[in-house]
Amino acid sequence: MDTTRFRKIAAISVAFTLVGGAALALPANAATTATRYVTVNSEGTIKVTPDAVRLNANVSVVAGSNKDALAKTSTAAAAVRAALTKAGILKGDIATQSISVYPEYNYTQDKGSVLIGYRGSQGFVVTIKNAENAGAVVDAVVAAGGDDLQIQGVTPFVLDSSAATESARANAVKNAKAKATSYAKLLGAKLGRVNYLVENSSPISYPPVMAMAKAAESDATVVDLGQQDVTVSITIQWALL
User: What is the mean pLDDT of each run of 10 residues along the chain (241 residues)?
Assistant: First the structure.
């Protein structure tokens, strides 16, 4: 092989080596840039006034036999159901939670456990969609059920939280961006595109405890609705430039 030809082959080999080295170096630099990111967690919370009330009630009757206890319980439950209907509660908003009949005993030191009858009971969960009318509904149910009725809970809640959830999401994103921008500034960088966003949980509504009282100027029951938090929690990752 002559000297001139050898030099041409060597030059071509060196050229390919340089090009190959540059091609390998570029992805490595790009990968280094791509791994610069900031990930933040954030919450957005909106306070809303509950638009519905959940009523938990139970009718309970003691009779001499299982059959009589169940029959009397059904009669009391029918009266409560009629009062709810008259108060404007739709059939679909009245749900039976439980029906039970069982022997009831009285315990004394001298006689021990003595059967005193059979207790029948039926539990209801009622959704009152007109929250402002909740107190009147409670009074109507108590009047219909009399001493056979127990109110086990009156809880305001947010029936339709869609609008509040949208606002909570917007707040969550705003808070996340502010936090990420602060971190980027501390690192001498800027925020790039969003790599991903994950909503960590469904919107959370925190219900208050039972809120019911008699009005000071009358015997009418008043249900205080108060306010509740609708919260959205997210995680967002931004690339850093």
Answer: 47 36 38 74 94 96 96 97 96 96 90 91 97 95 96 93 93 97 96 95 55 60 92 96 95
**185 backbone dihedrals φ, ψ, rounded to 5°:** -60, -40
- What's the chain's length in residues? 241
- What is the CA angle 88-90-96, rounded to 5? 120
What is the distance between the alpha carbons of residues 82 and 74, in angstroms, rounded to a whole number?
12
Candidates 40, 41, 39, 46; CA nearest to 203 is: 46
SS3 36: coil
Q: In which residue are the tokens 């969003």 written?
A: 194
Query: Residue 65, SS3?
Result: coil
pTM here is 0.70
Question: What's the one-letter identity of residue 7?
Answer: R
Domains identified in the chain and CATH numbers: 36-48+161-240 (3.30.110.170), 52-157 (3.30.70.2970)
Residue with tokens 């609705």: 225
